[in-house]
């Protein structure tokens, strides 16, 4: 019971810490555009729902895989705490690079699948697109790094990662819900939302990437010089 009482505040503090990263992460318009495309298929509700499910499950699995890679790296170098913060600094630098790239080139755009969609192929397409984009999912790497730095149990870390992924998926549920409620009439509205989201991403994402990058680099620098990060768990 005492252990549970100690763990819960740590988990809630960690979730509060990664919420700003979540706000950066789901501003990417690619998934929304994919779901809008699925909403124009023969089975709009089923296909868009399954595409979101495939993307979300793949994101969770990728997070676990990245966490295992971080842990193995930390074990090899025999100093996980320092490695966690060095990784944070590297991720911060990568976020600053991403901020400059998005400001110059704009947010990425989605390409629609060429074949006719079914629920099964929609699930697979959502998962594949997620896995292909993982090397560029810098905010998600930052989330995994924060989970590892919090020094929670494996079970608690998986819970936090699952909560993050459900939070990431939540705004996108509007696509199948809107289609289920209004049918084909919802698609023009969703396409407008997709366009607005793309414009917001082009203007807001560079600043959010840059700010998050500065915070991670500052947190790492303070830890490496003083032995304690800016945010303590």
Describe what is shown at a glance:
This protein is mainly α and 233 residues long.
Give the proportion of residues in helices.
over 70%
**Overall geometry:** globular
**Which structural class do the helices and strands define?**
mainly alpha
Listing every helix as H and every strand as E from the N terminus to the C terminus, the arrangement reads: HHHHHHHHH
Mean pLDDT: 75
With helices defined by DSSP (H or I, 4 residues minimum), what is the helix count?
9
Strand percentage: under 5%
Could you give a short account of the major beta sheet? none
Q: Distance N terminus to C terminus?
A: 20 Å
Annotation, overall tally of beta strands: 0
What radius of gyration results from the CA coordinates?
19 Å
Give structural attributes.
mainly alpha; 9 helices; 80% helix; globular
What this model shows, in words?
The protein is mainly alpha-helical. The chain has one domain. Helix content is 80%, strand content 0%. The chain has nine helices and no strands. Helix 3 (44-77) runs parallel beside helix 5, helix 3 (44-77) packs antiparallel against helix 8 and helix 4 (80-105) packs across helix 9. The chain is globular. It starts with a helix and ends in a 7-residue tail after the last helix. The mean pLDDT is 75.
